Amino acid sequence: MASPPVSVGRPATIHDIAALCGVAPSTVSRALSTPDRVNVRTRERIQAAAVELNYTPNSQAKALSSGRTAAVGVLVPDITNPFYFDLIRGTQLQLKAAGYTQLLVDTEESDEVEASTLEQLRKSSDGVIVAASRLNDESLAAAAARMPMVTVNRDVDGVPAVIIDTPSAMTQALDHLISLGHISVAYIAGPVVSQSSARRWAALTQVAEDRGVQVRNLGPFAPKKQSGAAAADAAVHSGVTACIVFNDLIAIGMLQRLRERGIRVPEDMSIVGCDDIFGADFCNPPLTTLSSPIEQAGRVAVSMLLAQLNPLGGGGVRSRSVMPTHLTVRGSTTSAPGN
């Protein structure tokens, strides 16, 4: 075949291939996107011409014709929170292996930013993974009805979800503190809109009632290290001897504030965090915390989303996956004062 002239610096198009093969551009498009719809001889000529002209498909045009973008949105409420580092890594690796691009968005702990981002991603992605959504149940369910979605740490009827089972680990955390003689414990609560925080408090109160010990709810607090100072002051004022904290960032901030006030951890007050983020074992003292397979949670979320996108793959679509959590004991907990 004699190649038709192609402008220097301009990538080849399906029109160039069509001219070289003597067929219509629509035939070239079918041969490259749905080859079974074109007879073998014509298809082979078109494919040979595409190689000869070093043709590269236009991804945007392909998306328009197929309705697919090969991109998946991943929304997190705070990209600076180390909890999400492993989650993002898990989604990235799993998406890359499946041939998808990850579109990472920080929704700034804002339901408005999250809602507008989801609306934008309807056009630019094939589906979304939403971690710790700040939307109400109705809004989240409505968004999931408009596009393939999997949530992480948010349980809403009708929306596939990966749940990191920290509420069940509340039993381990409280039993650990009780075994050390603590009978007055505070839960340092996270944001009001956090379903995880509400579920942990509900689980903790039930366990406390069963064990015959007192727990009190202090907060809410923003899930940032800066919140630790106010949380520590509230804990000291309440008179408790131990705290179970919404996340490690607040707990680390509490360690710093308690040290400033001359209150020893763990001798005067024990602290249990949640998430086992990078750096939790580098604190002074190292933080006792609830550990979860966070990277694996990201991978599972992607697998569940891809099952929605490719229902003919034969793997089945899971509506819910629960990731186990366990207590990791370090230096921030010890016997209650006077024991």
Please tell me about this protein's structure.
The protein is α/β, with parallel strands linked by helices. It folds into 3 domains: 14-65, Orthogonal Bundle (434 Repressor (Amino-terminal Domain)), CATH 1.10.260; 69-164 and 294-322, Rossmann fold (3-Layer(aba) Sandwich); 166-292, Response regulator (Rossmann fold, 3-Layer(aba) Sandwich), CATH 3.40.50. The protein contains 12 helices and 12 strands. The chain has helices at 14-21, 25-33, 40-52, 59-66, 83-97, 111-124, 137-146, 166-179, 195-211, 228-238, 248-260, 294-309; strands at residues 71-76, 101-106, 127-131, 149-152, 161-164, 184-188, 214-218, 242-245, 270-275, 288-291, 320-323, 326-328. A 6-stranded parallel β-sheet has the order 2-1-3-4-5-11, with helices on both faces. It has a 6-stranded mixed β-sheet with strand order 7-6-8-9-10-12, with helices on both faces. Strand 3, helix 7 and strand 4 form a beta-alpha-beta unit. Helix 8 (166-179) runs parallel beside helix 9. The longest helix has 17 residues, at 195-211. It starts with 13 loop residues before the first helix and ends in an 11-residue tail after the last strand. This is LacI family transcriptional regulator. Keywords: DNA-binding, Transcription, Transcription regulation. It holds the Pfam family Peripla_BP_3.
